Amino acid sequence: MFFQPDKENISIDNLKAVQEECLAKTIELAGRSPYYRKLFNKYGLKPKIKALKDIAKFPFTTKEDLRQSYPTGMVAVPFEEIVRMHASSGTTGKSTLVFHTKKDIENWAILVARGLYAVGVRKTDIFQNMMNYGLFTGGLGLHYGAEKLGALVIPAGSGNTKKQIELWLDLKTTVIHITPSYLFYLGHVIEEEEKIPLSKFSLKIAIVGAEPHSEETRRKLENIFGIKVFNCYGLSEMNGPGVAFECEYQNGLHLWEDHYYAEIINPDTGEVLPEGKEGELVLTTLAREGMPVIRYRTRDITKFIKGRCPCGRTHRRIERIKGRTDDMFIVKGVNIFPSQIEGVLMQIPEVDKNYRIVIDRYEGLDKLIVEVEVKKGFFDGELSHLKAIQDKLTNKLKENILVTPVVNLVEPGSLPSSTGKAQRVIDKRRL
Ligand code: DLL
User: I need a labelling partner for 51 at 20 to 30 A (CA). Which of 18, 20, 77, 421 fits?
Assistant: First the structure.
């Protein structure tokens, strides 16, 4: 049993009091790191706050600031207190490093265990962790959380798909942790290559995260595997997975507010938005010792869901991440998030498990190409059948994104697949 009612169902007033106390400690501690000490001096800020609203005096921290303080400029405790380091999975520039004390690792495991329990994982479960172990936080983060809960953890890592399936069958895995794109790929290999009936698997739950995905994708994965799929959000700068987790109601992700102070801002102006408005999530660590981070701009777009969750947890829920401010692309002047395209595709029964978005420019005009894998049965040699699917997809996409795409239908398994975070958008205008 891993449920902390005194913390998870805490009254709003008490939660605010906890946040105020922890925020004061965090600001004081952050002032001991070389990066924040210099920053506070520059702005004439005292590392002290009296009330939660005082956080507004402090500037945002960005990915670039983390890079500038590479490697250890934000560490706030004597270095011998640090027991673990992780890094972000960024593909450009220097990685951003995050350092943890023993207590930080323990707290992170507790938050993950809370989330796992909330979606129904128990001590009796066999938990196969299909995320990459190493600098990436998806492997060790969920590993420690699932162990804390008492489940049997199989540290399978990502990739090596045939071995994964073998372990999955032989050990009667009941819960997996995986990216949504890898789960689609696994489904393809099981059905089309290994031809194993899904009834042979004991799977009940998949925890998915690490990349944006739509509600339609969740439903499609649930139908393919006959399981429940739950969303887990996090980022390495804030430990990793487990910042926010769905509960059994699948209606938003509870953000653990005793460990993170959350704000939603207008990404263009930095203005803090009223509750319920969509914008960029900004997070402050409230209990981290090794590397406190103040007002970190996640670049993730979401909003708070108003009202209480029937599960009784009082920590506010965020909507699933719509995308990242830097994932949004503009075609013919229209702003589009890949998740909008995914949401349309995954509702259409003829669509199989993978797709890709290519943006190009011909004779000065933007062209949006959507490549879609179509289920095998529809490649029956009748061109008119394919044309009908193509027209349906083009019209549905146009209704939703207001741009007419070129839809290319391809056979299942023909688009590049991923065992980690998928790269779905190729913007040739930037190449
Ligand atoms: O992806 C941590 C993680 C691992 C989360 C496993 C969940 C599960 P980073 O590599 O630092 O850390 O990437 C963080 O990934 O800012 C989001 O843009 C995106 N992301 C993470 N989880 C979700 C999610 C991990 N559930 C970045 N939905 C974040 C949408 C997500 N996007």
Answer: 77
Residue nearest to atom 21 of ligand 1 (CA): 210
The CA-atom distances, in angstroms, between 315 and each of 8, 56, 256, 322, 349 are 7, 21, 6, 20, 36
Averaged pLDDT score across all residues of the chain: 95
Task: Identify the CATH homologous superfamily for domain 334-430.
Answer: ANL, C-terminal domain (3.30.300.30)
Nearest CA residue ID for atom 22, ligand 1 = 210
The residues with which 264 forms a beta bridge, in sequence order, are 281
* pTM given for the model: 0.95
Could you identify the residue written with the tokens 């009667």?
172
Predicted pLDDT at 147: 98
What is the mean predicted confidence (pLDDT) over 19-40?
98
Best substitution site from 88, 95, 235 to test ligand 1's pocket, by max atoms within 8 Å of Cβ? Answer: 235
CATH number of 1-324: 3.40.50.12780
| Pocket-testing residue among 211, 253, 301, 325, ligand 1, by greatest number of atoms within 8 A of Cβ | 211
Given a contact cutoff of 8 angstroms between Cβ atoms, the answer to whether 426 and 371 are in contact is no
pLDDT at 239 over 70: yes
For the chain, the structural domain boundaries read 1-324, 334-430
For 397-416, write each residue's pLDDT tens digit.
Answer: 999 999 999 999 999 999 99
Phi, psi of 20, deg, nearest 5? -65, -45
Over the stretch 263-293, which tens digit does the pLDDT of each residue have?
999 999 999 999 999 999 999 999 999 999 9
Q: Cβ(101) to ligand 1 under 6 A?
A: no
- Asked if pLDDT for residue 90 goes beyond 70, the answer is no
